Amino acid sequence: MVNWKAKAITEDQGPNKKREGARQGMEGGRGGAQGGGQPNIKAAMEVAWKHLTEKRIDEAKKAFELILEKFPQSAMAFVGMGNAFAANKEYDEAREYYKAALHIKSDMPIALVMLGRVYIKQDLLEEAMIQFELALKVNPKMSQVRLFMCQLYLKMDQINRAIAFLNETLVQNPQFSEARFILVGILERQGETEGAFQQLQEIIIHDPEFWKAHFYIARLLSLKGDFKSALSACKKAILLHPDVSRMHLLMGRIYNELSEYDKALDEFIKVMEIEPKNILAKIGMARIYIKKNKLNEARKILAVLTKGDRYLVLVHRLLAEIFLKQELFKVAIDEFKAALIHGVKLVEKHPELQLIAERASLEPDNHRQIAEAFQNVFERIDFEQTFGIELHQNTDLTETEDKLMNDMVGTPTALLV
After folding, report:
1. Mean pLDDT confidence for 341-350
2. What is d(CA 331, CA 202) in angstroms, rounded to the nearest whole number?
3. What DSSP string runs through 6-43?
């Protein structure tokens, strides 16, 4: 790692004509303009940032290192080097480079914010908040910083402060869709569904092409059981942004609820085209095959999923349903028991399941009645609600924040908009 304390030499540390000329060139001073320093560093910076934007991290590091050798007072080069380390999740090194930039220019917004983001990644939340507050003092109009501060309040479980901060932000900028969208998520988690819905409508008024609002409306409507309205909203979202797997996942679920099984299957297949390893899409396909009485196709899908470690309670429950339909009652009982093993909450909420399991041991020849008894209870269980399994998946803050972080890592001007 570069010793930035040695690199970032200030004027009062002694004369150095070569470095002084470079510094003046970087800042557009007289020496740089006459000596051609400014064009050289500009071209070098463009190359370095291009490497970073295109994820060529090692090349970016080398390019920024060369810049810093010739222009040790280039705060933006230190930021670029920090971004390169942050892109590789080397957060300790990234921190030092951001600090180097701030050693040169203490009020540099992008260095303050990127340092704050790294602090969040390292769970140093109070330190992160300090950096964000300093950045907002320098430039109160940096909207992305407000999103980061909101994220920080949520991580610190300061929900009321997060809401107040978002409301303050929206008073200043009512058309800030991302901020309002985060407020939607908070309101829904607090059970204020109507308030969330109103905020979504407000987003669409100001920004009708904000696809996530249409998707979230579809999600809320589907949870209420209004599947026809949910279908309309989901179609709008997909029209705006067709390559998001979870929207096709929701569309598949809606079509399933409307008994349009072929269309549902098409949507789950689209999910697999976008995201081949999506387990929920595979489960959705298996459900459709069961309803279409294509039991062998469903069984093949589910058999593969039993080798994984996700959603096993639902996988075994569906396998049990298949074997029950095939009148393989003993095997069906074994699958129901497997579902119980992977779903402790099932027995907690439905203690009768444990009684049925015990009955299976006492009545080894009564397979049919026991399998049907299991099925009668399982049919009443809402698996998505019990286990937090959403076949349409929520749009959460993490995705938004990770995208913003990635955008900033490769874009030196992202926070200046």
Report:
1. 85
2. 53
3. HHS--GGG---HHHHHHHHHHTT-HHHHHHTHHHHHHH
Q: Rounded CA gap, 279 and 302, in Å? A: 10
The string of pLDDT tens digits covering residues 175-216 is 889 889 999 989 988 889 999 999 999 999 999 999 999 999
Q: How far apart are CA 139 and CA 416, in angstroms?
A: 9
Question: Contact at 8 Å (CB) between 341 and 382?
Answer: no
CA–CA dist 204, 170 (Å, integer)? 15
Phi/psi for 139 (5° steps) reads: -145, 95
Residue for token pair 């998001």: 244
Average pLDDT over residues 83-110: 94
Q: What share of the chain is helix, strand, coil (3-state, %, to 5)?
A: 75, 0, 25
Distances (CA, A) of 40 to 8, 70, 83, 121, 184: 19, 10, 22, 35, 48
Q: What are phi and psi of 307, to 5 degrees?
A: -85, -10
Closest-CA residue to 334 (of 357, 365, 305, 363): 357
Q: Which of 187, 207, 206 is nearest to 197 (CA)?
A: 187
d(CA 398, CA 288): 31
CA distance 164 to 183: 10
Q: Which strand (E) or helix (H) includes residue 298?
A: helix 295-305
Give the whole-angstrom CA distance, residue 345 versus residue 255: 29
DSSP letter assigned to residue 205: H
Q: Which of 389, 372, 386, 395 is nearest to 324 (CA)?
A: 372
Question: What is this structure's pTM?
Answer: 0.71
pLDDT in tens, 23-72: 333 444 333 333 444 557 888 899 999 999 899 999 999 999 999 999 99
> Quick check: 407 and 53 in contact, CB under 8 A?
no
At 367 the pLDDT is: 93
Q: Which residue type sits at 261?
A: Y
